[in-house]
């Protein structure tokens, strides 16, 4: 996305009285933070909720060119890191996509038209990434690419000007011209030469093409999520070849309703993801302003997103057609300096925390009767939208939240990236109504965190509190059988380790050594595969429901507890077989005195069966190869009547 457009919300930012403190708060914390253990309380008996797998998503990576399929290395990477949903389409490029012609106009490159094949991208996901979902989009602008015969000749210009180009936002496709040095637009191109009108029924007809009996055979379950275009609130900047002025909000609402209604008729179980707002300023403003609405002779001021919700609620009530499923935001905070690190580690608080003072608060200052309130710095935008949804649609509205683009964050420190990303994943797991998270930009450290969460986080979130949550958070989850719990700790302190005193209620951990997995001191991109990464394996001794743990600065740490009755760990006092279990080189050595058939099973630390070997009575000493098993901590279950836990570190 054009960085100038992404940063529109910078204009008019006022300094606030907290700016100095916020800038230097991390330094103050370094020198003044008290030395005491932070209390973490976990209550497995409290109400739990399902964690959406689609918070584990990303943008990009899948080819849309049949002549250049997605590389095997990317497919392996995505499988190993555990990504669950991939948003495709290209951001600004998806607004003018013509699925019939398989073309799109690129607004950030002179509006030139290039080939893109979403059919192929979807088939790549379906055929090569089993169980992974794709997120595509509809077009609401009303214009899409028609041909690529009227592109501006960028290749010739680059050859003649030593690889330099005019500003890429110049509208040169369709016969445009610039002066000799490319600094001035002389003639703007004619969009009628490369675009065509595109009504609602044309954009939603892709659903028939993909899913109908005579379509191309895609699985609806894998392509349920659809963006309602992309950042319509700045089309007068990104798509000013056809939208010279900001689209009137009434026109956008009409187009939105038309496309959403058509899509719902064709695909009743579709997940409509909108309105796809650009950034913090646009969360509150349309065309740089709140809305003044005449209601029965009285002028009432509305924040943009509040009024959007109100209008959709009215339309849904009158038509009976559901128009939104996932309320979608984009977010580009432009914290791109090392001086921003402390604030970056707090960004997860912008969504729901009613106490957090966001240092770059801007659009939120438009809330209130005065039109501009410089002291307003608390965003909690998802909590605000949650309240508006309840107010206008009722408490049973069922609308969830998503962020389908996020970026413009300093990424010179992979541990900071890991803490930022883990904080978001943890916060979105904590909230029962966050469904989708697909960052636009991807930084070193994120693959490591994604792998840790997707491999070891359980399906159901467990109530967890920290008495200093801004500095050290814990996010807990439990499996469906309620016999295994994962706790992920995030220490955001840049310089200091912190101790946590953990209390677990409603769950009875088996005392002993438990697996501890940790990301710390990351440098650059370290994730190569499921077995080649920076995740450090060790153990922690716990004695029951209370334990303590030391957490390094800027670290993400997971511990895995199992309970009495677990299918993973279980010890019986009575024994029929005696097993001597050891690791010798690359082999698992089992010695026993068997008088009946038995078996030995190797489990990952989260309970996944990796290998099973049968034992016969005459097999008193067996060796089983571990050459294909990565280094790590594992469980071994030996025998039918007795299993005991051992920690295996394969070499």
Distinctive features:
651 residues, eight-stranded parallel sheet, 22% helix
Average of per-residue pLDDT values: 89
Rounded to an integer, what's the Rg over CA atoms? 28 Å
The secondary structure category is: alpha/beta
The unreliable regions are: 1-34, 567-577, 640-651
Distance between the termini: 46 Å
Which quaternary structure do these chains form? single chain
Number of helices: 14
Tell me, briefly, the overall form: globular
Beta-strand percent range: 25-35%
The tally of strands reads 32
Main beta-sheet strand count, sense and barrel state: 10 strands, mixed
Please bin the fraction of helical residues.
10-25%
Care to describe what's here?
- The strands form 8 sheets. Strands 1, 2, 19, 20, 21, 22, 23, 24, 25 and 26 form a 10-stranded mixed beta sheet that branches. An 8-stranded parallel beta sheet has the order 3-4-7-12-13-16-17-18. A 3-stranded antiparallel beta sheet has the order 27-28-31, with no helix packed on it.
- The protein has 14 helices and 32 strands.
- The chain has a domain at about 580-640.
- The model is unreliable at about 1-35, about 565-575 and about 640-650 (pLDDT under 50).
- With about 650 residues, it is an alpha/beta fold.
- The longest helix is centred in the middle third of the chain and has 18 residues, at about 250-265.
- A hairpin with a 2-residue loop joins strand 14 (about 290-295) and strand 15 (about 300).
- Helix 6 (about 200-210) runs parallel beside helix 8, helix 10 runs parallel beside helix 12 and helix 13 (about 415-430) runs parallel beside helix 14.
- About 20% of the residues lie in helices and about 25% in strands.
